[in-house]
Amino acid sequence: MNQAEVRFDGRAIVVTGAGRGLGQAEAMLLASRGAKVVVADNGSAMAGDRASQGPAETVAEEIVAAGGEAVACTADLSTGEGAAEAVESCVAAFGRIDGIAHFASTCPELMPPDALPDRDVELVLRVNCFAAIWMARAAWPHMEKQGYGRLLFTPSAAVFGALGNTPYATAKASYLGLVPTLALEGARHGICVNGVMPSARTRMTEGFPPGAYADWFFRTMTPEKVAAAAAFLLSEDCEVSGEIFSLGGGRVARVALAEAEGVIGEGASIEQVRAAMPQVMADTSFFFPKDLSERSAKVSSLFGFDGGLDASDSYAVRPHADD
Fold this sequence. Notes:
- The protein is α/β, with parallel strands linked by helices.
- 41% of the residues lie in helices and 14% in strands.
- It has helices at residues 21-32, 54-65, 80-94, 118-146, 166-173, 175-186, 212-220, 223-233, 270-282, 292-302; strands at residues 12-16, 36-40, 69-73, 99-102, 149-153, 191-198, 244-248, 251-255, 259-260, 286-287.
- The longest helix has 29 residues, at 118-146.
- It is globular.
């Protein structure tokens, strides 16, 4: 077993949402291990309003006071310009960018689907999947040129279903497609891309109903225990890519998207599908494709065909011709 300390000397990493909670714990840990950190946080409330420079500046000052290197960035990640600014501030301050840990998110007020305000839906999507893509787009040329990069995104256990949380769960579910796809894009350039579903005491979870579970959760699920595993995924030692992990309380677990082998029928009528549904729902013959190529080959084999799409090393669909 390798006992050497995991270090980030010479590496420059953007940590979003780093003014508080999980992001703050991550920024502090990375800096303590030698990373140069951009503390990216516009200081907004959970609903995404009332921005403030205070949280980012305070954390950056704490890192510097402890002997580390850090700068604050209070750009608005819900815009393409703000997301790019977070990356550009890293390059400007430290001459490079080696990693992004994207913890920032809004959390709209819980409510049923028919009451969702457009503003809340759009903002949580922008701060999550849009900002993730925008930051990856801005950082990609730098990482590709240096042959190294680490991207870490934060889906959520809300993807399993969370009552009243439609916009948040939808935004977090976007990472289930983003992570493996960017991992394929980055494989030839030394860029590893992963996601974490964190469980920790934060501003969001402090809204749990009082009781035994909340008490246990707050004692057990500290931000620092998420930060340690997340830091490994941002390190040179990590060669895993395209994966989602559940983190919390010292637990690290792989989360995988599975598909069952299914029931193959003629599909000739609605009634045939109705008759097959109990068998479909009872099917536990799951497989876990690593990408679209593997999945297409598996499904075609169930029909007796040997072959599949080549979507790992080349584009599976031709560019659009003029319609």
